[in-house]
Amino acid sequence: MKPRLFNLVALIFLCGTTAYAQQQSSFTSVALQPTTAYLQHNGKACRMVRLVFHGGLSYTGGQLYISFNGLQDSLPIAAAAAGLKDYEIPLPGTPVTKDEQVYVCYTSGGQQYTARCIVSPARTDWKVYVMPHSHVDVGYTNVQSKVLAIHMNNIDEAIKIAERSAAYPAEARFKWNTEAIWVVEHYLALSDEAKQRRFWDAVKKGWINLDGGYGNINTSATSAAQLMHMFYTGVRLGKEHGITVNSMFQGDVPGASWGLAAQSDITGVHYFLSAPNASDRIGSADQWRDKPFYWQSPSGGQKLLFWQSSPYSIGYQIKGDKIPNFFTIEDPKPHYTGHPEENFLDPFLFDYLAKLEQKGFPYNMTLLTWAMSDNAPIDPELPEAVKAWNERYASPKLIITSAKQFLQDFESANKDKIPLVAGDYTEFWTDGIASAARETGINRNASDRLQQAGAIWALRAKPNYPAADFDTAWTNIIMFNEHTWGAYNSVSHPEDPKVISQWDYKKAFALNGAAQTNALLTKSEAGEATATSAVDVFNTLSQRRTELVVVPASLSSAGDLVKDHKGNKIPSQRLSSGELAFRVQDIPPFSKQRFTIQKGDAYITDKATVKGNTLQNGIYTITLDEKTGNITRLQKKGSTINLADSAGLNQYTYLPGDSAEKIQYAANARIQVKEKGPLVVSLLVNATAPGTNGLQQEIKLVAGIDRVELINTIDKQAIGDKESVHFVFPFHVPGAQVRYSIPWGSITAEADQLPWTNRNWYTQQRWVDVSNKDMGVTWSSPDAPLFEIGRYPTAGLIGGLHFSPLWRSFTEQQPVIASWVMNNLWHTNFRRDQQGPATFRYYLQVHKAYDVVAANQYGLANHQPLVATAATGAMEESLFFSINAPTVYVENISPARDGKGVLLQLVNAAATPAQVSLQPKDHSGLNIHQSNLLEEDGNELGSTFTMPAKGIMMIRVTTR
């Protein structure tokens, strides 16, 4: 634009003498708003400000006079029958390098209106990537079948829109992000061959993008094996069709497990785009918005490019409330307004970019997601809106994108600028899983047993490994951890048939996964019966074990005497339940041993005793308070220190309304002996407990076993009012630090957490450790994943908690662990109440100085107990090689899908490199290769290789 040269005095004179307009307009005043945008004007990029009409709309035209940076210009504003809310003004001259004031005078209807604003320097080359998607909630807005139908229809619509916009400028050509492989897998399964070909053709053209995640999963609540498997289907589909799937998108969920970075080389997923909820129970997670970083793994050897964008609901906030409410429509379809450029990114985008500029944002590109709601139809007008935008604005330039395209473009342009960050992005939404405590426990236990089934298949070298059946079970287990647990009105209208239906669908993931797991475990153990009155015991871990085995009465009717495969007598005891318990000694890693049950009395060696309220097993002395049943004495042999705080361990607490001020406790404890010894002793505590029909707690010791076992069973009453249930463990460990296990490793609370992440509660995989420099306790629960550090940092966290001051910014280290077993604090999605029995097991081990290797071994043993079954096959079976690596554990082992050897996922628990040595058990040699999620052979390893500190590795082992 060639500016007209007026001086300011002349401009004011012209403004003051303009003839009266024929008609008075409705607005009463004007204001100027600076923006970061540049208009396409007369073939040039001109900085833009917005003239905003106040008090009404502008209907009659007028003349605008502009003075800016020593230059003047004027332009007419045409009359508008519908009225104008604002008008975009191109400023004269080149981009400013310092703050400059702009002055305008607008004459209309015989009136003159003036305004000023400050224009600061702004980028001329902004690129804003717009990612179209529909947020995938597996339920929430409607029953799951309806939800799935919407998402599958979106794929068909996306292909049509991409075809329609194929000749548009590249930036405006449509791309669709399926968000979750759950949608894609069902779409392909229900499509004929022609439709499948059309789909894959669209993927290869870039019209459809596949991100690797199966769903929007609570990743901190998944095991390492689950976390790995959640990418398997997506990566496999990509490989089969020549597509690289190396990105993940997670919508709604604030936070993610650090384990994602640890496994990135194995899965091949190196890009992570997060678009969390806008404010609902997210704490301070929004502080990570537009702060991209390379997420470095605990070992330092892997990294994942992480970007948290603005909330996924931006599109819905801007346009979604101007179109039909898809929540209220049973079978919604894409909605055409006929005016694509309306209700679009202006003026939102101008304010958003201005804030980035003010914060010194170092990049010239960012991303916004574009969804019309949860489980909503596609926005069919996006290509036209983007095309019109780019024709009008020189900057910011809009680009319709996928998560993968954006992150790859960003990395390509800024690789050397991206900071490297390490730490756990501790999740916020895992609290909701305690709204279904029973099913959560079922799912966690199924996950452990499924790993054991794979391990037994591997160590027995059974042929015909049913990989597809294992995949189905893993998918069900993973999908129970998907972030959608119910309906949007699950709390307000719990009896709504849709609410009930959606919970039944969700619950089925856990129940089906458990049933499939049990079937696979039985199949792994099966074989030709070769002995009567005998049982086989499997060790599915890479560590030697001395533990208790319990077999049902139906397998132990021959007698109470147990002998090992060499004929040695084994300590045993007939339990009050009729089951037979015996202690196995030093069973080797990944092996099976046989034990015979014979007529005769149980063999006795060292003894455990119970007297009054005290239990002893030669290692521990446990005393219960006679009134409360709490453990008031926890003392290990060789120490004079009682590690139980005066309040007592395993204390039941009930918070009505989640109010710490109104806390209630169990009462009227009745203590009796359940198991009398000499191998197993236990005390049974029955008590009245608020919120329940009763509480039962069993405290158990086994002679010669370094473990305290607690079994707490609640018969929960259905209570719709807000509540929380805890079992509290205040340990007497002065100066303690709290460490806990996460997928693929362990961290120290606070020290290993990223800023602006959850400090109110935590999610443990297998163990929590409370230790000072001299002593400590490792605490483990297979059933209850949530815990708090200290007393009730979750108190008062009811409802949406938008920007609540109750969110903690720092975790004070203290030796108090509160197992948060039940709550109903959410206002949506999760269950309003739960009813019936739920069992929570806890295991305690007192130790000297903290040892991360020992903590992991203890946690693994508690989650994967020795497996006893009727005897079949050979008397002894074991893996065809041994592993020597004191600090390394095998996270998962299974037969290879192609039948060639076994796959192992290894974890070095130590903070120093570890040497791993694999040796065959016969005279054959071994082939050892690094492997990946698709079980593809990589670098060949020798029989001895080194793992980095805190590193993980996947390997394939075969015989030569």
TrEMBL record:
UniProt keyword list: Hydrolase, Signal
Molecular function per GO: alpha-mannosidase activity; carbohydrate binding
Domain Glycoside hydrolase family 38 N-terminal intervals: 127-416
GO biological process annotation, one example: oligosaccharide catabolic process
Xref: CDD domains: GH38N_AMII_like_1
Residues of the Glycosyl hydrolase family 38 C-terminal domain: 615-778
Protein name, UniProt field: Glycosyl hydrolases family 38 N-terminal domain-containing protein
Coiled-coil segments on the chain, per record: none
InterPro entries to which the protein is assigned, alphabetical: Gal_mutarotase_sf_dom (IPR011013), Glyco_hydro/deAcase_b/a-brl (IPR011330), Glyco_hydro_38_C (IPR011682), Glyco_hydro_38_N (IPR000602), Glyco_hydro_38_N_sf (IPR027291), Glyco_hydro_b (IPR013780)
Species whose genome carries this gene: Chitinophaga rupis
Signal sequence coordinates: 1-21
Transmembrane segments: none
Listed Pfam families: Glyco_hydro_38C (PF07748), Glyco_hydro_38N (PF01074)
